[in-house]
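Q: What residues go here?
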């Protein structure tokens, strides 16, 4: 075992603190009927079939795979050592940290409620010693010491970082997050865990496998010519890069939230998946005080030039030939000015993702400058011009604290916005609308101009939402449905049944009951939800029955303690488009947000018959995106099953 680092104060990310501060009891609304024990001939599925829609298998998935709920006698946290950056970082840069992850009972692996670490090399089949998280020395010393040579630390690293990112999602969304995959295997007979392979094979790659339900982290030999604190031809493990682990688990979580974002229908969709995962990894940097303080000190407060914070996967870049971070959140010129990356509708997916990352960080920098300007003025006798040399220690501390707090807020906004995105074929401009609406819903008062900063940043990067007349905030936010649809009492919080709190439904039967109520509204208002009557069309296309993909109740808490209750549902319809070069599927549908009294607050729809979307998808599928699709024997185009492995062949994005 490697020499243990000096004792450190455990870092408690804000998300972990929020998730662990409560225990759960089963709650049932007064007067509500008890949940049925099992489906019957009069079940929600039967009701759906009779009304002309289907309930997707993803609806009940969260009832079978949910995070551990802390009991009253449980500890709050499990402190574990991690690399806060990667093994190539120096101790003075905050290279290692103890992170407090939400407590849960663990089996060897570690294996908890949602994550199961596999101690087998996925490439060679070699079995390594398995971490026993309950061993006395492990408990007393906050886990295994950070070491590239210790396979058990590799196991600990991926579990701890994945748990921290999951906690951030759960806090922002106000509910449990279900996985998007469906499988059983010898490694996971119940099919409820995301499998983590710290040794995913000898290759320069790391990826999320939605078929196997796993994250695979490759390892490789460094190039002969390396940079930084790395050894030529030495082994590099992607599982030890905080950025890579955070990025890959974000892909898995986003797949659970929006399964149709896995369909490579346009550069925007793939770019969003890549860019969003990078955004989460970058903002997670700010969870570690030592890293933030070191970056602030070295960059003299200029976050845009703080490579520790804005660079991604530094060790990977240093050992694969680029001699710099694999990617950066921003580009700056010689004068330190941020250079926007401009949106192009036909950009390569990774370039598209970098545009999104740059726009988000641009907005972050704007708000950070607003919030810290007073402290800079105080430290400079009102001039606002910092003197040469190192910043005063107190100013470094204040800037670091403000940066960490702001990053936590931006992280929550970015994640929460997923609930306001359309369920299919997202465009980057629509994510801006989702961001603004999500923030307004929880924090209508915006004294620091967060939403103004978002709008300005996205416009500087030439990211514009489709079909808007101006960049006014009220024009960009989603609006309530034009057509008034009466509240549905079956969806009111007085009728919903919970397990513990509104973020956890009582069970599969209750979720399917809610889905049936959503579907009953949809079939009576097809156009409102971007759908049309199922069946064949004159041009040869065919429309399937609408499908309720998911329905989740939420309890969101704002920065000032304000609470918002919502029900978020995802409804889609598949259209099989007949084409001489091969049939392909186009999806339409809507994300539906239902208020606590059963009223429809927002319906974010994408029309299944939209000609512009259909033609754009056809050109991409049969053109530059051809490599991402396969053609079946009946000339039908389907997405590649190994999509992320293919996208990440040369870089562990």
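A:
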């Amino acid at each position: 075992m490697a020499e243990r680092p000096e004792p450190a104060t455990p870092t408690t990310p804000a998300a972990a603190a929020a998730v662990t501060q409560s225990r759960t009891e089963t709650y049932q609304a007064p007067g509500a009927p008890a949940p049925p024990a099992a489906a019957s001939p009069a079940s929600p599925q039967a009701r759906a079939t009779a009304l002309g829609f289907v309930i997707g298998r993803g609806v009940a998935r969260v009832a079978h795979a949910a995070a551990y709920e802390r009991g009253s006698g449980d500890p709050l946290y499990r402190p574990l050592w991690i690399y806060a950056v990667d093994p190539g970082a120096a101790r003075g840069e905050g290279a290692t940290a103890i992170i407090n992850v939400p407590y849960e009972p663990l089996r060897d692996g570690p294996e908890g409620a949602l994550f199961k670490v596999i101690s087998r090399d996925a490439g060679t089949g070699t079995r390594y010693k398995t971490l026993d998280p309950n061993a006395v020395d492990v408990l007393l010393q906050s886990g295994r010491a950070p070491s590239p040579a210790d396979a058990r630390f590799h196991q600990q690293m991926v579990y701890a970082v994945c748990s921290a990112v999951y906690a951030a999602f759960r806090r922002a969304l106000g509910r449990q997050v279900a996985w998007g995959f469906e499988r059983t295997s010898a490694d996971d007979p119940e099919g409820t865990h995301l499998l983590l392979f710290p040794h995913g094979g000898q290759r320069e790659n790391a990826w999320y496998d939605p078929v196997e339900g796993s994250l695979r982290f490759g390892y490789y030999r460094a190039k002969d010519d390396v940079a930084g604190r790395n050894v030529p031809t030495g082994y590099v493990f992607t599982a030890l890069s905080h950025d890579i682990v955070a990025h890959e688990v974000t892909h898995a979580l986003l797949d659970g939230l929006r399964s149709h974002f896995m369909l490579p229908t346009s550069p925007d969709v793939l770019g969003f998946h890549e860019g969003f995962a990078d955004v989460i990894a970058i903002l997670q940097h700010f969870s570690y005080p030592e890293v933030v303080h070191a970056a602030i000190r070295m960059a003299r407060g200029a976050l845009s030039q703080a490579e520790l914070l804005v660079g991604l996967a530094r060790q990977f870049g240093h050992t694969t030939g680029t001699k710099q971070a694999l990617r950066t959140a921003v580009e700056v010129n010689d004068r330190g000015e941020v250079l926007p990356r401009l949106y192009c509708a036909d950009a390569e997916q990774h370039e598209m993702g970098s545009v999104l990352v740059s726009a988000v960080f641009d907005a972050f920098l704007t708000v950070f400058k607003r919030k810290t300007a007073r402290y800079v003025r105080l430290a400079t006798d009102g001039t606002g011009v910092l003197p040469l040399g190192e910043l005063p220690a107190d100013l470094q501390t204040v800037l670091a604290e403000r940066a960490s707090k702001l990053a936590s807020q931006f992280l929550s906004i970015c994640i929460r916005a997923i609930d306001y995105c359309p369920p299919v074929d997202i465009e980057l401009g629509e994510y801006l609308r989702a961001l603004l609406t999500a923030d307004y819903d929880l924090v209508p008062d915006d004294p620091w101009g967060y939403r103004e900063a978002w709008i300005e940043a996205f416009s500087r990067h030439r990211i514009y939402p489709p079909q808007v007349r101006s960049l006014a905030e009220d024009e960009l936010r989603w609006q309530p449905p034009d057509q008034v649809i009466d509240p549905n009492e079956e969806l009111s919080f007085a009728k919903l049944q919970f397990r513990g709190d509104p973020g956890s439904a009582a069970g599969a039967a209750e979720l399917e009951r809610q889905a049936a109520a959503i579907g009953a509204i949809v079939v009576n208002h097809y156009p409102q939800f971007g759908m049309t009557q199922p069946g064949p069309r004159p041009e040869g296309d065919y429309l399937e029955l609408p499908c309720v993909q998911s329905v989740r109740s939420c309890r969101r808490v704002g920065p000032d303690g304000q609470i918002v209750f919502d029900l978020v549902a995802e409804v889609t319809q598949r259209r099989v488009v007949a084409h001489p070069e091969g049939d392909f599927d186009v999806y339409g549908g809507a994300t539906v947000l239902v208020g606590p009294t059963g009223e429809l607050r927002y319906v974010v729809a994408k029309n299944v018959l939209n000609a512009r979307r259909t033609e754009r998808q056809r050109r991409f599928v049969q053109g530059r995106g051809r490599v991402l699709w396969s053609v079946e024997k009946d000339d039908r185009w389907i997405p590649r099953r190994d999509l992320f492995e293919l996208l990440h062949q040369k870089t562990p994005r």
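A: Context that may help when evaluating the design: The chain is about 35% helix and 15% strand. Confidence is low (pLDDT under 50) at residues 23-41.
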